[in-house]
Automatic annotation (TrEMBL):
Cell division in keyword set: no
Record's subcellular location: Cell envelope
Signal peptide (residue range): 1-19
Protein name per Swiss-Prot or TrEMBL: Extracellular solute-binding protein
Family: Belongs to the bacterial solute-binding protein 1 family.
UniProt keyword list: Signal, Transport
Annotated PANTHER family: ARABINOSE-BINDING PROTEIN-RELATED (PTHR43649), SN-GLYCEROL-3-PHOSPHATE-BINDING PERIPLASMIC PROTEIN UGPB (PTHR43649:SF31)
Coiled coil: none
Matches recorded under Pfam families: SBP_bac_8
Length: 550
């Protein structure tokens, strides 16, 4: 499932060629290979699963019976009174490393001026210096680093970027270390917290028959329509639209340019499931039909064009690919936008200390025609941490030990330090026993170490009512998850197909924003088919046949 603008092509091009490909619309498809394997056949490569005996959630989740679809792990409304240490010795051996990670929010001070980073590194026993890049433009920064041959020891790359990267199937071998010799089966025993990650997440960390990255497990859902619940309640706006028309009318009611308020960010990716566009492919009459080829896609384009034409979407979003919708949302300049559920927590952490009334919600899922909705699902891992290729064995082992520390789950001392900093300095416990960042914590603490290790995904927010609302939304939405033809199959996309995604969707974006006529959609699909879409269809049909699904 893809949810962010991407970057293409890591290797097989000179640095000069890569530098010339910095703009997504100019990049060309690559030629790397594509493979597919049923996830259950990849278990021999993954760590032996050993559950960590920690605290149990008090908000029940949903156990998934859908192949390849993660569980809803549940959540917590109370913070453990006495978190226990997960590790009995230092993770690090005094090494010093750099780690590139995204952040969808204001960056904190660097290591030299950040007591939070210094405290965490002291506990780890090694120095991790973060090279934080804006998540909205992360792809461009990453490709520039790769083009310059400036790959840090640890590099985080989200799956939604990888899915759009031509030649990643080749790049992953050239740029990053094969972790199979370190983590396969019982070899993972020294890294008990990594072994606690779900097997399904590790299966999605395999490329070219090798275990290449440490996964960040996902919740089932790639995104939701988040809204400013405090503003909705103050103004009496509808918090449960049940059709595309109701959402459109809500947008008209909310938008008031004189008050510097617009209803929406660019919500087109959430409009896909609203209009029942298939997540990627639909198997119909024994043939694969791509989402771009469906009548539902055409309806979605026309509806989104109406939102842009009637200026219900903030003008900064309309005029730019890189508008920071989180900032606009936090400022009340837009009140509905599409984001992952993690954005809910992130925004609360950033803004409730200075605005206690700041409150968010997520619209219940609905279909454009008021009928039964569908919702997309994630694969079992959504972000990967890679280790730079060619490091000495001892450094690879130290880095894995650091990632193991970062994977400490909710209810442990390591988790507390990673997420909130030092008690009494970066955070205090409020009357309910919930961690609340201090002024210093708000300035210095950023979600950084959490990206590196992944961890079982409980809704472990320091906001009990929001955590409850989130788990309820997930449980209520789970029955509407759309089954896809490839559920449970680990597919490495054909490079031509990956390379087509960004330039093709840029063309559709031009239609939505009124820069091209709606009638151009057929021509765009024809170009997509010619330039690799039909070739990809043949590959995906073979995957279905090889797995007995066609």
């Amino acid at each position: 499932m893809t949810t962010r603008r991407g970057f293409l092509g890591l290797v097989g091009m000179s640095a000069l060629a890569l530098a010339g490909c910095a703009t997504p619309s100019t990049r060309k498809p690559g030629s790397g290979g594509a493979t597919a394997a049923a996830a259950d056949k990849l278990k021999t490569l993954t760590p032996t699963y050993v559950p960590f005996a920690g605290v149990k959630p008090d908000l029940p989740g949903t156990v998934s019976t859908l192949p390849g679809v993660p569980d809803i792990s549940g959540g917590f409304t109370r913070y453990p009174a006495s978190p226990a240490a997960a590790l009995t010795q230092k993770a690090g051996k005094g090494g010093s490393y750099k780690a590139m990670t995204p952040l969808w929010g204001p960056p904190p001070p660097g290591l030299a001026g950040n007591s939070y980073f210094q405290a965490v590194n002291a506990d780890i026993g090694a120095t991790v210096e973060f090279q934080i890049s804006d998540g909205t433009t992360y792809a461009d920064k990453a490709i520039a680093r790769l083009a310059a041959g400036d790959v840090p020891e640890l590099m985080v790359i989200p799956s939604w970027e990888i899915e759009k990267m031509a030649d990643f199937n080749t790049a992953v071998d050239k740029a990053f270390e094969d972790l199979t010799p370190y983590l396969q089966g019982d070899k993972a025993k020294p890294y008990a917290l990594l072994a606690n990650l779900p097997t399904a997440a590790w299966q999605w960390s395999v490329w070219n028959g090798k275990l290449m990255g440490v996964p960040y497990p996902t919740e089932p859902f790639p995104f939701a329509l988040l809204y400013r619940k405090d503003e909705f309640e103050k103004n009496g706006w509808n918090q449960s639209p049940k059709s595309a028309e109701e959402l459109y009318q809500l947008g008209k009611e909310i938008t008031d340019p004189k008050a510097r308020r617009w209803a929406f960010g660019d919500i087109h990716e959430m409009a896909w499931p609203i209009f029942k566009v298939p997540q990627e492919w639909r198997l119909e009459g024994g043939k694969l039909v791509h989402k771009y080829e469906t009548p539902e896609w055409q309806l979605m384009l026309e509806w989104m064009r109406k939102l842009f034409a009637e200026e219900l979407i903030h003008p900064d979003v309309t005029s730019s690919k890189g508008a920071n919708e989180k900032e606009l949302f936090a400022a009340g300049k837009i009140v509905v936008y599409r984001d992952g559920l993690g954005g809910w927590k992130e925004l609360l952490q950033q803004h409730t200390p200075k605005n206690p009334s700041f409150e968010l919600g997520a619209f219940p899922v609905f279909a454009h025609d008021g009928g039964t909705p569908i919702m997309y699902h994630n694969n079992a891992a959504g972000i990967f941490t890679f280790i730079r290729k060619g490091l000495p064995k001892a450094q690879v082992e130290e880095l894995l030990s650091i990632l193991n520390w970062c994977a400490a789950p909710y209810g442990t001392k390591e988790y507390e330090l990673s997420n909130f900093g030092v008690r009494g300095k970066h955070f205090e416990l409020d009357a309910a026993g919930t961690p609340k960042l201090t002024e210093l914590g708000t300035k210095e603490v950023a979600y950084t170490y959490g990206f590196l290790g992944g961890r079982p995904l409980y809704v472990d927010w320091p906001f009990p009512e929001a955590a409850k609302a989130n788990v309820e939304w997930q449980n209520a939405t789970f029955p509407f998850i759309e089954k896809t033809p490839f559920d449970g199959i680990r597919v490495q996309r054909p490079s031509k197909y990956s390379g087509l995604q960004v330039p093709t969707e840029d063309k559709f974006t031009d239609i939505m924003r009124g820069r091209r006529p709606v009638g151009d959609a057929k021509q765009i699909v024809t170009e997509w088919k010619r330039d690799g879409g039909d070739e990809a269809r043949e590959f995906y049909m073979k995957v279905l046949r090889d797995n007995g699904r066609a």
